[in-house]
Amino acid sequence: MARGKNSKPDSKITSELNILNYQTLRINALDTLPWKKPPLCWLTPEQQTEVTNELEIRQYQLGEKIWLQETGGYQFFIITGKVRLRDEKSKPVATLNDGDWFGDLQQLFTNCKAVAASKEVVVVCWNSSLWEKLSHPQIDEFWHGKGDREQVTGDSENREKEEISTSLTTSYLSLPSSSKSAISNYPSHYPFVVSGNTAAACLTMVAQYLNNSVQLEWVQRQLRGQRPKNVIETAEKLGLVLRKLQVNWGELRHLSFPALLLWKSEIVSSWVVTYGMKGNCLIIANPLNNQCEYLTQSVVESCWDGKLWQVELISKQEKFNLSWFTPAVWKYRKLLGEVLLASFTLQLLGLASPLITQVIIDKVMVQESLATLDVMAIALLLVAIFEALLGTLRLFIFTHTARRLDLSLSAQLFRHLMRLPLAYFESRRVGDTVARVQELEQIRQFLTSTALTVILDSIFAVVYLGLMFYYNIPLTFVALAVLPLFATLTIIATPILRNWLNETFNRSADSQSFLVETVTGIHSVKAHAAEPVARERWEGLFAKFIRTGFKASTTSNISSNIGDFLTNFSTLLILWFGARLVIDQQLTVGQLIAFQMLSGRVTGPLLRLVQLWQNLQQVLLSVDRIGDILNAAPEAEAGTGLVLPPLKGEVNFEQVFFRYSPNTEPVLKGISFDIKPGQFVGIVGRSGSGKSTLSKLLQRLYQIESGRILIDGFDLKSCDLASLRQQIAVVLQEDMFLDSNT
After folding, report:
1. Residue 433 domain flag
2. In whole angstroms, what is the distance from residue 449 CA to residue 150 CA?
3. Strands, DSSP E only, in 167-250?
C-alpha cells in the first residue's frame, strides 16, 4: 500500500467503546498478538513494552473503511474478522483474515486504494511512525515480503503453511530410507504455485495445465472455503469440472489427469495436484512445498485415503452436433483401440473356418485320412475357443467403455441442463425434456458400438472379397448381385421409417409429460374429482403412441423381412451357380462350401453397413432433440459474475420493466421502490399482477427488460448467480423436497 499522510482516521468510522469493554478487548488483544512470530519476536523487551503502550483497539462494522491511501498513517493487525482490499473503483482485489497485517508499510497490491471491513472486525493499530522508529533490516524485509503476490492470502495462511509443512516433513523423516530415496528427480515442466491457500493454488495449477490461464488472486476471490463443495463450485467458475472417484493405487494408471487429492496430515488437511504417474511414482504438486515431486506408493498412501477429483475442461462449442462426442470418445481411444484390435483378430480367425472346412471336404474325406481329420477338428475347436474368448473380451471392454462414456456425457448434459434459465423449463413440458435427455443413450450406442464394429467389419470384408474372387470371379458377382436391391430398399424405407420414428417420439413425449404432470399435481386432481378425466386423457395419448409405434415397427419389420428374403435369395443363387461349377469341375465341393461361408462374411457386414444408414437417420433425430437442450444459452457463463460479500439486505428497484415474452404486455412497468435492511415488507395485489415476479427478479431467475435492481448497491446484472441465490431464503408457493436416499 502506498504511504499515506500520518493523520488519524475519522472518529465516525471507529465504534464507540465504553471503558470496561475497551479494557477487556485490550487484554484479549495483548494475548492474541503473535509475540513469538515476526515482526514482534524481533523486538527487544523495551521495544515490546513501547509497542504495548502505543497500541489502540478499534472495532469496525461491515463496509466501514479502515484504511485509505490518501489518509493512511497507521499499521494494523487483525484480531478477529475479515477485511477486503479494494481498488480505485471500489472493487475487491483480495481478502485478509485474522492474524494478517496491513497498513502504510506494506504493499499488498499496488492498485489497492482502501481497506474495508468484510464483516465485523477488531483490529490493533499503531501509528506508522512508531514502526519506522523501531525498524531494522529484518523488520523491513518482513514488511516488503508481504508485498509478494503469492502471499496475498495473508499471515494466517503462512502460519497454516508452516504447520502443514512441519507435519509433512516430520512424516517424511519417519519413513524408511528406501522410501526417501524414491523421492528424487524433481519434475520441473509442470505448472506450480506456492500458497498457503492450497485449494486456490491447486485450482490455479490445473487451470494453467489445461491452458486456461488464471491468476491466483482471482481464484482466491472466488473461493469461499477449503471444503470439496467450495472447490467444485469455484472450479465451475473457471470452466472446469471436478469428478469425484474412489480408487486404489493400482487403478491410478488407468485414469486421466490432472486430478486433485486431499492430503492428510496429523495437524491439518490440504489440497495437492497430481499430474500423472511416472514409473511407480505419482507426480505430486503440493502448494506448501517449493516444487513438484515424484512420490512412491508408501509415501502417498500414508497421506491419502483414495479419494480424488478428476479435472476436465468444460467444453464450449457454438452448436451441438455429433462432433460434441468427439472429445469424450477420443479420451478413451486406448480402450477403443483394444476393441478394434480384438475385432481385427476375430476377422482373421474368421478366415480359418472356411479354409479348414475346405480341407476336410476335399482332402480328408476323399483320402479317408482319420488322423488328418482329428488335426482339423482340433484346429476348428481352437479357433472356436479363441473366437469365444476374444468375443467375450471385446464385449467386456465395450461395455466398460460405454458405461464410462455414459457417465461422462450424461454428467455434461445434466450440468448444462441445470445452468439453463427458468424460462427454458417453463416453455417446455417436463416429459419432453426427460425424453430428450434419454436420447443420449441412443447416440452413444451408435458411436461406440454399432458404427465402430460395422465399419471395421466392412473394411475387413475387402479381404474376404479378394479371397472370393480368387475362388471364382463370376460366382463372386452372383453373390454381390443382391446388394443394389438392398440399397434400393434402404433408400425407399428410410424416409418412411424416419417419419414414423419422429412421430413415435412426439407421441411418447406427450403421454409421458401428461403422466408426470398428473402425478405431480395429484392433489389438484383428487381435490376436483378429476380422476376419470385424467385417466381418459392419458389413455387417449397412450393409444396414439401405440398406434404410431405400431406403424414404425411395421415399416421396420417389412424392411427387415424383405432384407431376409434377399439374403436367402443370394444363398440360393450361390448354390445354384456354384453347383453348376462343381458339375463342370471348375470348383470343388469344399471350395463351394468355403465360398458360401466367405460370402456370408462379406454380404453380412455390407448389409449391416446399409442398415447403418437407417440407424444414422434415427441418431440424427436424437441429435436434433438433444440439441434443443445443449444449444440453449445458459443463465450466465462460469466465472463471469462478481462474487458478492455477505449481504445486509438493502434492495432497490429503479424503473424496472419486465415482460415474459416479446409479444406480450409488460407485467411490470417502471416499478421503483426501496427496502431497507431488516424491514418486513408485504406485497398485495390481484392474481397475475406480478407479486411472485418481483421475488423471481430479485433472485435473477428472469432478466429484466430495462431498469436496474440493486442489492447493497450491487447491480444484479453483474453478480455471480450462486453467491446471490445462496444468500436469499425463499419459500415457494409449491415447494418440494428432493429425495436424498436415491
Report:
1. yes
2. 49
3. 240-246
